[in-house]
Design a protein that fits this description.
CATH topology of the largest domain: Rossmann fold
Helix content: 40-55%
Strand content: 5-15%
Order of helices and strands: EHEHEEHEHEHHHHHHH
Distance between the termini: 45 Å
Largest sheet: 6 strands, parallel
CATH class of the largest domain: Alpha Beta
CATH superfamily of the largest domain: Creatininase
Structural class: alpha/beta
Oligomer: single chain
Number of domains: 2
Length: 314
């Protein structure tokens, strides 16, 4: 099934599109921003990785269930993209309504299941995608946003040793240990994401990659870090972890100079990307199958309180 060819749903005659969807195969709906990822990666980086992961998931499902890979057009939007030249932000309310509308149209066309694919980790972006999941459910279809699994794992990643194989190609043992230890805060354009891009879309990565300076470790925002400690003291462990993650993320955005990437992308490699891709697909598959079989619901977004607070952390 390595040669599984995506079928563009909207390029088919209408009656053929409806017939194809009647078989129950999911539709992959891609929702990714135009976003700065540093000077070495493309503005469509999240889309490229999301498509690569979707192909891997679809191949596995084709082998297990005989399903074709049916794709809808990309929604080129993203809430709170990283600032930088070319980034194009979409307001939360607008993104939510566009995603709802796209999901509603797919279900009206006959889709019984939708897989919403993104690689953009902003909390409000995940909440906008959750609105699409809810729209599908309200109309009697199943929907899953599997990237939430990875975001939740990142928030809770105390021990990055399961990813040690990904850093095995770094010759210097001290640097290898440093890059591995930094994985819990390597959330944008760094070793992790750049390696995935080298695996899925190597031609899109700048040859100047290996000349990039490392990003200094982010300094957590004191007020949010204090709130995290207070939550932990109150026994709110999950909230404490999310606040701690938010403190680091906001600290990274406030760094001077702002590089637009985390960690050490100069060490990225396609071999490391292949390791990360294999692990991500292994996380995605059981979640996607459980939701599509009706045995589970799509995983919850992290940091849901960001929406409730009305952007108070900006």
């Amino acid at each position: 099934m390595s040669d599984l060819a995506p079928i563009s749903l909207f390029d088919l005659p209408h009656d053929e599109a409806r017939r194809l969807l009647s078989g129950g195969a999911p539709v992959y709906l891609f929702v990714n921003p135009v976003e700065y990822h540093g000077p070495h990666l493309p503005l469509h980086n999240d889309r490229l990785i999301a498509h690569g992961l979707a192909r891997d998931v679809a191949r596995a499902l084709a082998a297990r269930r005989g399903w074709p890979m049916i794709v809808a057009e990309d929604l080129e939007l993203g809430v709170e993209p990283t600032p930088g030249p070319g980034s194009r932000p979409t307001p939360f309310a607008e993104a939510r309504e566009q995603i709802r509308g796209a999901c509603r149209a797919l279900v009206e066309l006959g889709a019984k299941a939708v897989v919403l694919m993104t690689f953009h980790g902003a909390p409000l972006h995940a909440m906008a995608l959750e609105a699409g999941v809810e729209e599908c459910e309200a109309l009697g279809a199943r929907a899953v946003q599997p990237f939430n699994v990875i975001l939740r794992e990142l928030v809770h990643l105390d021990d990055p040793s399961p990813y040690a194989e990904a850093v095995a190609g770094i010759a210097d043992p001290r640097e290898r240990a440093r890059v591995l230890a930094a994985l819990p805060t390597d959330f944008h354009g760094g070793f992790f994401e750049t390696s995935l891009t080298l695996h899925y879309a190597p031609a899109s990565v700048s040859p100047r990659l290996h000349d990039l300076p490392d990003c200094p470790p982010p300094v957590p925002v004191p007020a949010i870090a204090l709130a995290a400690r207070a939550a932990k003291a109150a026994g709110r462990e999950a909230l404490a972890r999310e606040l701690g993650f938010a403190a680091v993320g906001k600290g990274w955005l406030a760094g001077k100079p702002f590089l637009g990437y985390t960690s050490a992308p100069r060490y990225a490699s396609p071999e490391a990307g292949a390791v990360f891709a294999r692990i991500l697909v292994k996380r995605y598959l059981p979640v996607v199958e459980a939701v599509l079989d009706g045995r589970a619901r799509s995983p919850e977004p992290i940091l849901r309180w960001v929406a409730w607070m009305g952007h108070a952390m900006r």
